[in-house]
Amino acid sequence: MNLTGEMLIGQTAVKGSRDPIQAINPATNERLEPGYPGGTQAEVERACQLAWDAFDAYRETSLEARAKFLETVADEIEALGDALVERAVAESGLPQARIQGERGRTCGQLRLFARVVRDGEWLDVRIDPALPDRQPMPRVDLRQRHVALGPVVVFGASNFPLAFSVAGGDTASALAAGCPVIVKAHAAHPGTSELVGRAIQAAVKKSGLPEGVFSLLFGSGREVGTALVSDPRIKAAGFTGSRSGGLALWKAAQSRPEPIPFYAEMSSINPVYPLPAALKARGEAMGKAFVGSLNMGAGQFCTNPGLVIARKGPELDAFVAAAGEAVKESGAQTMLTPGIFEAYESGVAGLAGSGKAREIARGAKGEGPNQCQTGLFVTSAADFLGDEALQAEVFGSTSLVVECADDDELKQVTEHLEGQLTVTLQMDDADTETARALLPALERKAGRILVNGWPTGVEVCDAMVHGGPFPATSDSRTTSVGTAAIFRFLRPVCYQDLPEALLPEALKQDNPLKLKRLVDGKREG
Amino acid sequence: MNLTGEMLIGQTAVKGSRDPIQAINPATNERLEPGYPGGTQAEVERACQLAWDAFDAYRETSLEARAKFLETVADEIEALGDALVERAVAESGLPQARIQGERGRTCGQLRLFARVVRDGEWLDVRIDPALPDRQPMPRVDLRQRHVALGPVVVFGASNFPLAFSVAGGDTASALAAGCPVIVKAHAAHPGTSELVGRAIQAAVKKSGLPEGVFSLLFGSGREVGTALVSDPRIKAAGFTGSRSGGLALWKAAQSRPEPIPFYAEMSSINPVYPLPAALKARGEAMGKAFVGSLNMGAGQFCTNPGLVIARKGPELDAFVAAAGEAVKESGAQTMLTPGIFEAYESGVAGLAGSGKAREIARGAKGEGPNQCQTGLFVTSAADFLGDEALQAEVFGSTSLVVECADDDELKQVTEHLEGQLTVTLQMDDADTETARALLPALERKAGRILVNGWPTGVEVCDAMVHGGPFPATSDSRTTSVGTAAIFRFLRPVCYQDLPEALLPEALKQDNPLKLKRLVDGKREG
Q1: CB of A495 within 8 Å of any CB in chain B?
Q2: A79 has pLDDT over 80
Q3: Which pTM does this prediction carry?
Q4: Which residues of A touch B459 (CB under 8 A)?
Q5: CATH value of A16-21+33-266+477-488 in 3.60.15.10, 3.40.605.10, 3.30.360.10, 2.60.120.10
Q6: Is the ipTM of this complex over 0.85?
Q7: Minimal CB count within 10 Å: which of A358, A443, B37, B380?
Q8: Going by CATH, does the domain composed of A271-451 fall within 3.40.309.10?
């Protein structure tokens, strides 16, 4: 497929009029053709109107039709073949195997949401039948289901050009909920975005859905992004990216005459706690494995372990020494964009120049452009507690070890943490009580708690929580990975005494959709 | 029980230091003893610290212990006996039978939440067991449950001094979720608040719970209310009241370094649609019944029908004429407070003086203080569409009929509406297709859709939605009445590869709590 540099608005392709966005191959700093001229308020207007026009019909598609549509999107993405992988590799600097894996995850999560749609549990049907003879007052017939919120804007993320971009988790869950989606493409991978966008566009057509179910816009965050979030026809938005970018759009969403849910996944340093017995038994091996996680995807995972918190002592020293050796052996890796590379360099320089963090080791210096050097630093609990800057995320493969004098200090550091996507315990049996004492604080701080694993790598399944208290996300009540993500785009509606002819299928008396409904306080089926 | 005029902070009673709040019997304008001196930042600090200290223990109470606690609260409220009813009648001007009914609802909803807690569905347990042999990558063991958000602030509402105040729906659902609660009492009924607060305080003690599970503060919204919502230990808040008050506190909640969910139930005019066939068949009876709903509780229900939207014509004229007759026969009723009465008078005067609304009828003028006169006005669709002020809520027993020339205009008026708690269709069989055409818009506009009923009267059950798009509430994804209200105060946490010894009861392998868990995509039990 030839890339045209156009935006996709419903079933049409439209060339923008603003300065073109052009992808850069970060491995070579070469500019990739074509340019993608940005959109304006006119294209925002057109995409929003189409999405609005499509909404009532799309949200009432049958469960089977909507599931089939999601599967068709996956099929169409797979049908793009090697062209998609090549373009994504060129635009992201990520290895081919990683992009192939990410494509599998992307299509897998679309198909998983197809299963979720068919199951229908997301409708959360609750029925309280009429009790005409109840004293002192009869009860009316009350039936509840969930309906889609409305058109949703999705901001593509740079670090997962497939799995968290145009057809990524936010798009899949919003489409599953019955919401039309307008994607604001990330500037780092416009060609990948066009390819995937055209796959979705084709799936919309093949599925006979209203064209406004999907649009893809290019352009600046300030112009197109803010205009989308501010449009009254948009009823929610999903975002994965930086804290500053997320907060700016979040504020725009809250400043509307009608505020809307804005799901931003922003900033997390994912603390790792090597506990005493585990440190003693396997500090060295743990140090090496830790650096393996730190280097995953050039440290550009949202769940990258940017912080280690442990009791000071020879066992921790052994861990740090082993980790330092592994850091020294870490090859340079190409980062996603020149901008991300620069931010990483300046973040590491800030840490090194803070006077509060001691450098343990740096990895190999890269020979090509935009290559990150892994880094490991150590600080004291006192310095960490005294300087907010040490808690800021350095997006990339650098981590900071916080040495705590005793359990009290360790608890203090823990309570001082901002919200996180993950926290990880490395523990042996003898650490059980130490872990138990830490757990309540960890539950308050993070969306996912791991034992003896590493936070990088997020399974797409029912039980996953990729979320957490602010600033990990803007809404700790939700997850952006896994099937529960669908609930972000739904709201309950109650129907009182509706005649059978007007009831939605999900609520009809004889349960034609065979749902497990909550009837009079008891679960059916 | 003698009222002392004190705040309740944990198990202590504390006299405030600010100007005393004193209840006024709206039926007589008499001041009721004692005065309730307001709290300051010092009491906010103390209550928040106690709530925070109680949080980790309270959120992990067993399902049975927490359910029993809610039942004990209900028992203690009932044990207050007639003293509570008398005081609430004196402070609210509401009839004794209404207050008795409201006490029944209040205790009923506490016991309903006890059932919800025991059932454990709110934990939403999801388990994806490890798949060590999966290719290309093994799956780790992932288990999700919901945990309480943290200490919650509840703002008591004036219009339900029991059911939506100190031990009302917000408090019951937050306590059920495992959140300590700090209530900021409404100034209109401080004595009722103290009585109910002391009942909860006694239940906390009898249940052996940490004292910070409940506190009750008096004071100004600006000082005490804002301080509570801004405190970093507070993780959510519930509010029922005016749009201006709700929005001010909502903004404070969003302006924190860590924004928190703020559930405000604010403003709704609850449109009623008498459809053509129904109007023709029973316009007169419908007009009378409508005024019955309009006059409920002196029009001070959140779901009061403040708007009628219908096709112009002789059938609507008959409805309006009958409603007008019923309005003329409506006796004056005492409103909740002098302030609410004044706001009502000024709202009605604004409508009458707008030049765009024709007065059809007014009810009897009261002889006592603070007595509202029922009102009915008519306007044209064009005027309604052209003047935002006509859509503003007049809190009290006045309603506005919007005459539409045709179905197009009716649709335009509908799309123009702000978000609502309820919309009501009055219809006969012959109206089915008209209703079907309206339904998508109504689903987008309201949390509850009624057929051939009246919106006043909200059943507390599983299927209820007392919520709706902004400005009906600040968060359309939730309800503040009914069992689903518990989800407002929960967030998911995922546990990866935790040893059995550290797993919460709800997630242990042999399902000791006998929950209906989602295991590997299938529902257990």
Answers
A1: yes
A2: yes
A3: 0.98
A4: 128, 139-140, 142
A5: 3.40.605.10
A6: yes
A7: A358
A8: yes
